[in-house]
Amino acid sequence: MKVSVIGLGKLGSPMVAAFASRGFEVIGVDVNSEFVRLINEGKPPVFETDLDEYLKKNKERISATKDYREAVLNSEITFIIVPTPSEKNGNFSTQYVVQAGKEIGKALKEKPNFHLVVLTSTVTPGSTEGDLLPVLEEYSGKKCGIGFGLCYNPEFIALGSVINGLLNPDFVLIGESDKRSGDILESFYKDFCLNNPPIKRMSIINAEITKIALNTYVTTKISYSNMLAELCEKIPGGNIDVVTDALGCDRRIGHKYLKGALGYGGPCFPRDNRALIFTAKRFGVELPIAEATDKINRHQVQRLVKKVLSFLPKNGKVCILGLSYKPETNVIEESQSVEIAKEISEKGISVIAFDPQAMENAKKVLNKVSFANSLKEAVEQADLILITVPWKEFKEIQPDWLKDGAILFDCWRILDPKKYKGKYFAIGISS
Ligand SMILES: NC(=O)c1ccc[n+]([C@@H]2O[C@H](COP(=O)([O-])OP(=O)(O)OC[C@H]3O[C@@H](n4cnc5c(N)ncnc54)[C@H](O)[C@@H]3O)[C@@H](O)[C@H]2O)c1
């Protein structure tokens, strides 16, 4: 089977590579000529685990173009994975989805046989049928369900493990315009996935609600744990790890995302939560849990900055270790580490930062921060070292790297406190 993928970014290019690895012929489309060139050369346009290797290994089944017509006419399914940027009110813009829909529609006009269009970008409930479907019908001159089919099929992957997440999902979510379209997509996933996951088929609107409801549930769990961590820190003897280790044994709760550390960031969690709040307001419903989750998340940055100021000696220097929004990625979108670095440096405090992957991106937004060439160089200069992202590389910090009187503040508790006696503090542990 031949498939096309519109949008070759952080999610689109791993999709191309993963689809090709399972024997599908894949044509990628992007408006960015550089991304098209790189994919054609078997090189990754974005930083993602295993992407390089998968693109190289499956090069003969992969091509890329800027030409929608070529992609649509030479494939049976077209996945749309273009950006849906957040607007101020929390809504996701469908500007790029609609642009893609127009081009796909024009190509469909020339295509005699049935074609399935699959929207994978995250959208606000109502957008697939409200924004995309009308342009597909208008530009193709065909009726949805007859000349072409439409599905909403978001992915639940995490940056840093996108290819593995695509190949081995917990479940596949399919919102379908009609049974024939859902059958085609289900059959595609049965061939594609390695782990035979449950496939949940439903109406498009229910799939749209499910997508952002799922991420909002996960963020709720994170904020809940962060709330408990703050409490444990304040109660003498409190220790968040001891508490969550026991809590997570209850199968209704589980251990995942029950850490109690810094808040969530990245291109999905914060905005999906706000999009659910926006959607609810449109229908006259209040979502106090989602609102509290967002509030608790924003509070993490403020409380960390306050802590740093209380620990830091006069004219002291702060070292921030970690700038990406999580380990194994160079993405800094909504990164709490970047926000903390910004706030502290803008108070006139000297800040040096180090991150194994995200420094180039961070340099574009942190103009009052200096950047170290190595972990050791960053640690040696500081009076207060703040570990904001649990990169495994940071476990290599040696106690003798710390200058006299310097302290370590470990937001994710990745170091052994015994090694840094008297110098070690952490989120979630009373001191
Ligand atoms: N990154 C994630 O972790 C993740 C996870 C789940 C869902 N999503 C959703 O996936 C969507 C895409 O996210 P991303 O992170 O891959 O975005 P991205 O910005 O990394 O990539 C999008 C790509 O689409 C291209 N593009 C834009 N308009 C186009 C058009 N009209 N035609 C062809 N190409 C076009 C851009 O040039 C870019 O290469 C968003 O809706 C996002 O919310 C992302």
Describe it.
The chain is elongated, with a radius of gyration of 24 Å. The longest helix is centred in the middle third of the chain and has 31 residues, at about 205-235. The protein has helices spanning about 10-20, 35-40, 50-55, 70-75, 95-110, 125-140, 160-165, 180-190, 205-235, 240-245, 270-280, 290-310, 335-345, 360-365, 375-380, and strands spanning about 1-5, 25-30, 60-65, 75-80, 115-120, 150, 170-175, 200, 315-320, 350-355, 370, 385, 405-410, 425. The termini are far apart. The model has no long low-confidence stretch (mean pLDDT about 95). Helix 9 (about 205-235) packs across helix 11 (about 270-280). The protein folds into two domains: about 1-200, 3-Layer(aba) Sandwich (Rossmann fold), CATH 3.40.50; about 245-425, Rossmann fold, CATH 3.40.50.720. It has about 425 residues and is of the alpha/beta class. The chain has an eight-stranded mixed β-sheet, sandwiched between helices. The structure holds nicotinamide-adenine-dinucleotide. Nicotinamide-adenine-dinucleotide (NAD) binds near residues 32 and 100.
